[in-house]
């Protein structure tokens, strides 16, 4: 996994954070309000130290149904306390009353007219404890966080995307080159996403490096933008005003088939990180996202700062913290066993 560069070329701020249930809390924000009627039960579930897949499997085993019958909007961190919404057919309501699990709690129940589908979320709210903080660092962290809130966050895929040791990309390249065969469809899909994510990050790094002098993401002729209605387009001229007003955002390529590609000078950079022969369907990802509702609470006695913020779906809280620290983190840096 290659190095990530950041838009705000500030001094490094040294702090620690740990991905564990006490110090890393994530709450899923639904895409829209549930209707309180319909044939599906919507459960708001809290899980501790479990993957979303493990949590879904626990419900499926209790109800004696295939895991595919349980809907969820996204995957949540394992090493954390997280809440998210799942959907189950209403006919299992009585059976759910007997559900018990030491790491899973059902917080709320309601009804809806259809099941939850992957991507049916607006974003996630994070609450993370930062350690080794003094008065100066607390001020520096909040200052950089506010700058990111105003000018945007580089939307890299975080280190979690590339496997615990960050070496999944080599396996992905070998599979796509035909040097190895992967039978497991879930592993195969994961490796393709790693491949696409790696080249997106490489593209974004090049665009960030060329933007660092001005401290804002530089737009190029031929960039592909996403507007507030969720539509992709390439304008005839750079939409500087709309970008500043956050009405449009430039996007980067997740290579594959049937995808909108950049043009002109933007394409000159993009094509370095493109694989037009990849059989998987391609897509585009926002290059910049905007954290919202940032709150900082500093506890001087414990050298601790709690930072809470909201990110759009698919964006990484660890990348936000990397931008503040001006440092790449790894899974070893944030291991729950590191804290004493």
Could you list some keywords that capture this structure?
340 residues, alpha+beta, Pseudouridine synthase, 8-stranded mixed sheet, 4-stranded antiparallel sheet, 14 strands, globular
C-alpha Rg (nearest Å): 21 Å
* Run of helices and strands: EEHEEHEEHEHHEEHEHEEEEH
Helix content: 25-40%
Structural class: alpha+beta
Model regions low in confidence, pLDDT < 50 over at least 5 residues: none
What fraction strand?
15-25%
By DSSP, the count of extended strands is: 14
CATH fold descriptor of the domain at 153-289: Pseudouridine synthase
CATH superfamily of the domain at 153-289: TruD, insertion domain
Shape type: globular
Distance between the termini: 28 Å
| Count of discrete alpha- or pi-helical segments spanning 4 or more residues | 8
């Amino acid at each position: 996994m290659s190095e990530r560069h950041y838009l705000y070329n500030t001094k490094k701020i040294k702090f620690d954070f740990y991905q564990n249930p006490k110090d890393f809390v994530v709450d899923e924000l639904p895409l829209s309000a549930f209707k309180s009627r319909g044939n599906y039960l919507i459960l708001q579930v809290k899980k501790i130290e479990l993957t979303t897949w493990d949590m879904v499997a626990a419900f499926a085993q209790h109800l004696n149904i295939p895991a595919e019958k349980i809907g969820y909007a996204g995957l949540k961190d394992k090493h954390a306390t997280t809440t998210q919404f799942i959907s189950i057919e209403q006919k299992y309501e009585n059976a759910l009353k007997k559900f018990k699990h030491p790491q899973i709690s059902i917080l709320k129940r309601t009804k809806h007219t259809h099941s939850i589908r992957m991507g049916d979320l607006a974003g996630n709210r994070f609450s993370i404890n930062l350690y080794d903080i003094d008065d100066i660092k607390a001020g520096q962290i909040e200052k950089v966080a506010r700058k990111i809130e105003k000018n945007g966050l580089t939307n890299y895929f975080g280190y979690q995307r590339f496997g615990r040791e960050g070496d999944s990309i080599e396996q992905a390249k070998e599979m796509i080159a035909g040097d190895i065969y992967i039978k497991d469809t879930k592993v195969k899909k994961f490796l393709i996403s790693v491949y696409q994510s790696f080249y997106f990050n490489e593209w974004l790094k090049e665009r960030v490096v060329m933007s660092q002098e001005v401290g804002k993401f530089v737009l190029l002729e031929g960039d592909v933008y996403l507007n507030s209605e969720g539509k992709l387009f390439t304008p005839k001229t750079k939409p500087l005003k709309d970008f500043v007003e956050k009405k449009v955002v430039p996007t980067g390529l997740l290579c594959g088939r049937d995808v909108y590609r950049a043009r002109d000078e933007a394409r000159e950079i993009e094509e370095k990180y493109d694989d037009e022969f990849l059989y998987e369907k391609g897509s585009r990802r926002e290059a910049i996202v905007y954290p919202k509702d940032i709150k900082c609470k500093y506890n001087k006695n414990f050298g601790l700062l709690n930072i809470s913020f909201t990110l759009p779906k698919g964006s990484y809280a660890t990348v936000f913290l990397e931008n503040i620290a001006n440092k790449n983190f790894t899974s070893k840096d944030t291991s729950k066993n590191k804290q004493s």
